[in-house]
Amino acid sequence: MMKEMMMNKRRKKGRRKKRRRKQMKKPGKKSI
């Protein structure tokens, strides 16, 4: 629970767009 709260706080503060890009790249929509 503490880890999730810390992760959530970090994501809100850092707002990393790299993670979103990785998730989009995972599906491989461009590949298909």
> Helical stretch count?
2
Q: Tell me the β content.
A: under 5%
Number of strands: 0
Structural class: mainly alpha
How far is the N terminus from the C terminus?
A: 38 Å
Mean pLDDT, all residues: 66
What is the N-to-C order of secondary-structure elements (H for helix, E for strand)? HH
Q: What is the molecular shape? A: elongated
Rg of Cα set? 13 Å
Low-confidence stretches: none
Query: What is the share of helical residues?
Result: 55-70%
How is the biggest beta sheet arranged?
none
Question: What can be said about this structure in brief?
Answer:
Residues 8-32 have a biased composition (Basic residues). This protein has 32 residues and is mostly helical. It is built from 2 helices and no strands.
Task: Provide a descriptive summary of the structure in words.
It contains two helices and no strands. It has 32 residues and is mainly alpha-helical. The longest helix is centred in the N-terminal third of the chain and has 13 residues, at 2-14. The termini are far apart.
